Amino acid sequence: MHSTQQQTNSQTSARYDLTTIALHWMTAALVIVQFATARIWPLFEGDELETDLFNVHLTLGILLSLVIVGRLIWWLLFGEKQPVRLPAMQRLAANSVHGLLYALVVGQVGIGYLIGWGLGQPINIAGIPAVPALIVVSGENGHILEGLHGDVAWILMAVAGLHAVAALIHHYIIRDHVLLSMLGWRNIDERRIDA
Fold first, then answer.
1. What is the pLDDT of residues 119-169, one digit of tens each?
2. Cα–Cα distance, 52 to 62 (Å, whole number)
3. Phi, psi dihedral angles at 129 (to 5 degrees)
4. pTM, entire model
5. Which sequence spans correspond to the domains of the chain?
6. How far apart are CA 182 and CA 72, in angstroms?
7. What is the dotted CATH code of the domain comprising 3-190?
């Protein structure tokens, strides 16, 4: 093991705070479920399950927007303490990817609201009107937004996938505590990463 890596590992016994960890994993789970429901409901065209999956997608989209607002508020109020010291270029890459992920999720949620409002009705949660239609999007623009929503979803999943691969590289190849710090274990130094 290189001395720089030993120094990095020995200096890092912290993890992200539990709120940051919870918001991170809620966002990840919601993004994955949103992507899955959007891919599955067309398979049930004309069936009641299509409507049910669409409603789940809308409801979880609203929940995702609330989680993202919570993440941004948490970050603005408390900042994100980086528990693992990374070399400058790795930190720049990590911050760039995180910024891109935030932009994609915020953009995706925004496009989702515009599509929902394009129907000219409030967006419902479990059949109950929850978000009033603030903007009415015309039919042709609605189709453009639907296509954009699908394209952004694929880009978001690709970037999130690269993010996950990078975490696994940190864990299994670089052998630092990047992944462990987001899993929430209290005492990372007691976990053997060289096993």
1. 777 777 766 777 777 777 776 787 899 999 999 999 999 999 999 999 999
2. 16
3. -60, 125
4. 0.82
5. 3-190
6. 17
7. 1.20.950
